[in-house]
Design a protein that fits this description.
homodimer, 31% helix, Glutaconate Coenzyme A-transferase, globular, eight-stranded mixed sheet, 3 domains, nine-stranded mixed sheet, 20 helices, alpha/beta
């Protein structure tokens, strides 16, 4: 061995280790194809104790055959894994810790499993690296969390590993690239393996990034998370939607935006073709969108409000509709949608005028969080989109409209709008002295409170009472006054007074519906372009195929 | 035609238009392969007046055969194009405007062409959409700047369009995806077309994203932009590097970082194996890096300081060295580097503790810009990395170390360090009352001054006088006092006094070299682990192959 090749092998330990592991399964694998019924053995051979392992648990798409199989390995062989899971949403994600296979967890979001994460943390069964937003977690895969093994899911693959991820590409490219280019091992579960590469609708990820493909025992699990039944939209939400359109979208000329997934923003989508049309705003506001294919957006699309939608992921039932509207949605040459959470989060951060979402709890300074006691839900994507990106340099009319001085050294601002009804359904106030997240953070030993969106990033608070134009606040005290003025009869709201409200309205810091030319009596469900899921199907020309649970008409 | 398919064709106008154009060149193309000598005809057939056209002008790699060819089309046939070019660096990029082929420009950076852009703008030959950072520009491709045509460059392609971009993948994936999935047309120039797909080293972009491949008349142009000759590092830069290591890296436990491309940060790289070693800091600081493969990083890599480097792009001459160090760099299965500017900018924004760079001009409040009169250089990537990302939620020791209160609602901060010698080589002060960018912005009719990094994002200013710990500032006035205290005999510095300096040092707001245990006499070039490019080649075991212009030893 020459001194140069000796020196090189010293610098290729990851590659050597990868080849060593691949060799262990060469007799089991048929080229790149792993036998479904040997997957537990294979994982045991390919994964070593202490490995950093990415498991594709996305917001929607789950590499669940692989995670279920990983939970079956022998903990005396594979243990102390450091799992990296964008969205911890499967029971087996936590079983891995209970069985001693995994020890440490880095994640961005946990839905149904948030309670168990919290318990395991208390019981010392699990240790947390950090809780991230989605995009931070991807970013760290290229810095200090480079994975040894990545387990992902796709619809189809050919025998060379070329992968069709289907409409729900989501996080997959960002997860795979980090391992494929640092001598990690990438295993893809797919619903179907095709013999002829021409039978792949398209290639979303090249085969040379993938090490192994395995056909899963059943199709990967996927959940419809972005479907809101219009029947559940309340008149108060219609009122708030009207205020949003007049007092924010129209006023600041919002052209590009991200909507949250709550009923508040669904209401906005549903009154664009009625109330928005009446105001003559079509083509003037909200032309470009970054969000999943919300069924409630169908009427606005059909009436020509929407020029483009780029998606984080897909939505069950929307596949045929999206395919039939390629002028609006991003689709491949095969006709099916292409989503990409990393690029869409980037677009939602840097390329849109506004983020608008609902929150459950906000303090008097505008800090909000969906975290509640006993649940470590994580951050997901909202903090990334719901902040003012100081790295932005290009200007748009909405961004410039928030300037407060003539100084050439002042920056424009992204609109970050929080919609919140002053009381929750159960009668608890939503606007409170201190958000639960502060105490949860303390209890869980987190270095800081898990705040979803910080008050200093919020530009507008919209309640059923009115809109507080926080970006105009001259001080923290001033910001608090504005929030109190629209906080109704919550404890925070009771600190305000009729005189203060009158002054804030006069000076343009707060607007009530009447200041915006909105009659509360107009705010009825009759403004909704679709009043039920069946109406959405009609609007879609029968292309939208709602999942069973929404077929209650 | 059924009503559903009628309705569908109404929603597939982009696709229909694409197919109409593709049909126009079907007799010229051999499958996906375009004949080199017919490229001007082909571009004339595929591009229509008013199109949004992305031209891959990257920081380094240039789709120059395609841009030169585009400049030769008949302006009576193809005109009024809206060009989107990340880095405007080729003469023909501007010729396109002079010839009337293009009218509007959106870009992120302009090097050698910045003077001409400025002139063309004044003369009304060119209109500017906006000036962006790289990552904002990519993001807008998915929102309101979706391209009709994308012209890119790779090393090799097969006849199915599968693309090997080589070590300099850079912007290509982000540019291609935006067109490939919204019925745009993607044309790739390559240095070589291989008949057998197996002759591709690897696939960086799948063929199903590409419409046409053309072999260029000569290999694409690529420039070494990140090579700094150690011979030009001055003793003052060594002193500042020592201060950075002791007063910032060590103090805040900086684990992951991005270095700018100036000589100041090259000096830091070069004294890690000497000064850093002496301080016993190896393995304790700067283990993970996001930057191009700087040759001046070689000694630190060889002595074991560097665990990982993820790269925006490549660097000419570093190919073999990078290939031989896969434990450190991101490389493909073929052994060559994979870079990715979008992912690296993401990592540089969200996943690292610190950005540290040099600036040419800074005002007393810490605002800085490299923009000077008569040149519209744009922003490039610095503002994205050189700000505190308010969307970040995960904590690291360095990020938490900048907390100023015990409030659970305070956020940690990214370190944004500006290194600036108080006077430029020509004797002009670098720290000034007002940066030129303010006037340039006004003259060019920009809505705001083109500030590269804003003072409120800067956490540390490091001059040859000392370090100002700006993150501790209690007010804008306080921040200005700290900067003045390290601004030497510049007009800004003369506003300070010995008393003020003493007070700031006593309270830990400012540190001089002696406060950090640094003797100015130690700051000599003898601390540089490599004193010349020849030394870097030696360190690399002969693997680094510097471009001719750096072979002056």
């Amino acid at each position: 061995m020459s001194s140069q090749s000796q020196s090189q092998s010293r610098w290729a330990t990851r590659r050597a280790e990868k080849h060593r592991r691949l060799a262990r399964v060469s007799s089991i694998a048929d080229g790149m194809i792993l036998p479904t019924d040997r997957i537990v053995d294979v994982l045991q051979s390919l994964i070593a104790p202490g490995d950093r392992v990415v498991v594709e648990g996305n917001n929607q798409k789950q590499a669940d055959f692989l995670s279920r199989s990983l939970a079956k390995v022998d903990p005396s062989v594979v243990h102390d894994l450091h799992l990296i899971i964008p969205s911890v949403s499967r029971a087996e994600h936590l079983d891995l810790f209970e069985r001693g296979i995994a020890k440490k967890l880095d994640f961005a979001y946990a839905g149904a499993q948030s309670l168990r994460i919290s318990q395991f943390l208390q019981d010392g069964i699990l240790e947390i690296g950090a809780i991230h937003t989605y995009i931070e977690l991807y970013a760290r895969l290229y810095v200090d969390l480079t994975p040894n093994v990545v387990l992902i899911a796709g619809f189809k693959a050919d025998r060379d590993g070329n992968l069709y991820t289907g409409p729900s590409t989501e996080d997959t490219p960002a997860l795979v690239e980090a391992a494929a280019f640092r001598d990690g091992i990438v295993i893809a579960q797919v619903n179907e393996i095709v013999d002829d590469p021409k039978d792949l609708p398209r290639v979303d990820i090249p085969g040379s990034w993938i090490d192994f493909v395995v056909q899963s025992d059943k199709p990967f699990f996927i959940e419809p998370l972005f479907t809101r039944d219009p029947r559940l939209v309340t008149p108060i939400q219609v009122l708030m939607a009207m205020m949003a359109i007049r007092g924010i979208y129209e006023r600041h000329q919002v052209q590009s935006l991200n909507h949250g997934i709550g009923f508040n923003t669904a209401a906005i989508e549903l009154i664009l073709p009625t109330y928005g049309e009446k105001l003559g705003l079509k083509g003037k506001i909200c032309r470009h969108w970054t969000l999943n294919p919300h069924p409630t957006l169908i009427p606005a699309i059909e009436t020509g409000w929407v020029e483009s939608v780029h998606c984080f992921g897909g939505e069950l039932g929307m596949e045929a509709y999206v395919s039939a509207r390629p002028d609006v949605f991003f689709t491949g040459r095969d006709g099916s949608m292409r989503s990409n959470r990393a690029m869409c989060q980037l677009a939602g951060q840097y390329a849109v005028d506004m983020f608008i979402g609902s929150t459950l709890q906000m303090d008097g300074a505008g800090n909000s969080s969906t975290v509640t006691h006993g649940r470590l839900t994580g951050f997901g994507g909202a903090p990334n989109m719901g902040h003012d990106p100081h790295g932005r340099r290009h200007a748009t009319p909405a961004w410039l409209d928030l300037l407060q001085t003539d100084s050439p050294l002042e920056r424009g601002r992204k609109l970050v709008v929080q919609m919140v009804e002053t009381f929750q359904a159960g009668g608890q106030p939503s606007i409170v002295e201190s958000i639960d997240a502060v105490e949860v953070g303390r209890e869980s030993g987190m270095p800081l409170a898990p705040v979803m969106i910080y008050g200093d990033d919020v530009t507008h608070v919209l309640t059923e009472e009115g809109i507080a134009y926080l970006y105009k606040a001259r001080s923290l005290e001033h910001r608090k006054e504005m929030i109190a003025a629209v906080a109704g009869v919550t404890p925070v709201g009771l600190a305000s007074s009729a005189d203060k409200l009158a002054a804030l309205r006069r000076d343009g810091f707060v607007a009530l519906p009447e200041d915006l030319g909105i009659h509360r009596s107009e705010a009825t469900r009759s403004l909704l372009a679709a009043k039920s899921v069946a109406d959405l199907v009609d609007w879609s020309d029968g292309l939208y195929d709602p999942p069973a649970r929404f077929r209650s008409w």
